[in-house]
Amino acid sequence: MGMARSGAVLPIWTTSPRHILGLKPVGYEVINLGGHEVIDINQLIGMIEKRVENAARIEYLPRHPADASVNFANVDKARRLLGWEPRVSMEEGVSSLGELVPGRTQLGQPGGHPVSVLRKAWQTWRQDRLLQLVTRNSGYLFSSNGISSVITAVQGFLAALLLGPADFAVLGMVITYASSINRLLSFRMGELVIKYSGQYLALGRKDQAAAVIKPPGSARRLLLCLPTCCWC
Amino acid sequence: MRSSVENPWVYYATNVTGTLNLLDMCQHKGIGKFILASSSSVYGADPPLPTPEDADTDHPLQPYASSKKAAENLCYTYHYLYGTDVTVFRYFTVYGPAGRPDMVMFRFAQWIAKAARCT
Question: Are residues B85 and A27 in contact, defined by beta-carbon separation less than 8 angstroms?
């Protein structure tokens, strides 16, 4: 913002108007909306200084060529066509700046304390529904995986205890054999089942869903049994 | 406004193509009323004060202002072709509830509150 336009220049400021007036049918009309007060930039800074109870540090720079210098609306047309009237004074507008955007602009508060940063992060998390869903679903996923790995560990421990070292080794060989055959012959049929049987279940066609589940199941059993029989 | 000098394309995509999309949708869906939020920046460098609506708008100073003028023109074209009822508001330095934090009022307020330099 070029503050070189201080003193001699007269910007005018507006509060957002009520758009309902704009709904009136007019054909095609261009209408100015602006405030009724003309103040210069130094007066404005003075008002904000008073509002936030802090002194401004001003640096004067040459005006940027793309900065408009003067801003003052003739709002006769808005009055005539829509009955619009600027109602909020500059003083009122500035004094309500802090309250208008809670959370976005906290005036007069030096932020950055670690506790307040943490609290802010917590509040952001609480307000973000998507983030909460992601957290919850990852929670489900991790807890089910955790439970299954604990059960597997207990199962292995019990099997070792009951079978003794020699038989446990045989069991280990069987499991290794089954899992390598499974890896070799697995054609990701689970995904097929999930995709199509879910579709039929949603339609209430249990027979069709079962028909989707049976062939891959039998195929798998067959593929596991065949080599086992040959081996035996 | 100054950032539109550095990146005019994003302002044209939003203000011109965006307005065109909305006008076209209104026409297809039979929505009869269109309000365009334009800007006092279309009045350029030396407008008469206080500025009336019929002041010169053919000499915009930034891509932002020229994109707003283009959007106004599109509104007129759609009004002429399809009878869409259009009100173009030219806002003069808006601030207020739900204002963007990068607008001048908030920036000044934050700079002063945090004792940063106003440049």
Answer: yes
pTM score, whole prediction: 0.50
- A27-33: average pLDDT: 89
Nearest CA to A14 out of A89, A79, A99, A76 is that of A89
Distances (CA, A) of A170 to A147, A163, A164, A177, B104: 26, 10, 10, 11, 78
* ipTM confidence: 0.79
Q: Which of A60-74, A200-214, B75-89 has the highest mean pLDDT?
A: B75-89
Q: B109, A31: Cβ pair inside 8 Å?
A: no
Rounded to an integer, the average pLDDT of A203-220 is 78
CA nearest to B93, candidates A73, A65, A3, A21: A73
The CATH number of the domain holding residue A84 is 3.90.25
Query: Is residue A30 one of the residues assigned to a domain?
Result: yes
Residue B80 annotated to the active site = no
* b/e per residue B48-70 (b: at least 16 CB within 10 A): eebbebebebeebbbbbbbbbbb
Residue A184 is assigned to a structural domain of this protein: no
Range of the domain at A78: 3-106
User: Is B119 within a domain?
Assistant: no
Whether residue A89 lies inside any domain: the answer is: yes
Instruction: Tell me the residue range of the domain where B107 lies.
Output: 3-113
Give chain B positions within 8 Å (CB) of A3.
118-119
The Cα–Cα gap between B20 and A147 comes to 56
Which of chain B's residues have a Cβ under 8 Å away from the Cβ of A39? none
CATH code of the domain covering residue B74: 3.40.50.720
Neighbours of A185 (CB within 10 A): 15
Would residue B99 count as lying in a domain? Answer: yes
